[in-house]
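Minutes, project check-in
Item: structure for the 301-residue chain
Input as provided by the requester:
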Amino acid sequence: MKAQVHFTVAISTIMLVLASCGPASSTAPTSIPPTLPPTQPAPEPTRTPKPRIPFSDECQPYSSVMAYGSPVAPDGHAIACLPGGHSSQDILVIDLLTGGQTTYHHGILLRSLFWLPDNHRILYSGNKDENFTAHLLDLEDGTDMVIMESEVIFVLDISPDGEWMLVKTRIDGPYDLVIEQIDGEESMRLTDDEAEEIWAAWSPDGEWIAIGSSSLPAEPMTYWTIDRVYLLNPFSGEEQELNTTRSAYDGRWSPDSSQLIYRIIPGDTPGESFIPTITCVLDIATGEEQCSEGEDNSPPR
């Protein structure tokens, strides 16, 4: 029994000696991570190409070659242009969602074009020789109806609800303004004086028509001097004078009807080299006018 105890003690002692002779510390082997395959780049999402809008010399937005109008439909889904430029006798309508294109032949020199709020009818006007006409084009059924005909007419704007068109025409003497129902026969004369109404624009809220007029006839090869800018309610006849520093041309409204945007010339008197490069903004409520000069400051049409 004693011998077994001594043998056990001896083995324990030997193990302790061996442990003391070993290294003070041992370093665990470094694990090597498994080799992973290279990360593949995520595939590019499939993109549907947008339709190309051919705005070039071959197809121009009509607002760039005509006096009045806006090329984009109210819902933003279609746009109109003139294939072949200003002399074109066609209207090209481009669907911006599908890229589809449809050409409508009108046969006149276009002077204005407006989308109606229903997004499928276009009101346009122009002349062939000395005959001036206003047309209503329905894009759904392709019908084109003459709704006004006169010796001289210029459609300057339409009411925000699409019920009326604002027309500049010669009745008995200088040009005057009238409004004509687009889908009806009612007509109202707005001005009847010796002044020449040069431009007019209907406010987006439908309450006012801004008018720039001249009581001074223009000299040959010069521009009219606008000596009166005012607001007119077409249904009540109420007027409100506006004070502009100089002749105001191409008046347009801000979307909220609170401001009038127009262009003036750098000098005091229009002349042969007249270029209205200064854009002004007039606050209707306060009468405050702010102007800035630049080469491309034309107000939106």
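Outcome recorded: The first strand starts at residue 59 and ends at 61.
No further action items on this chain.
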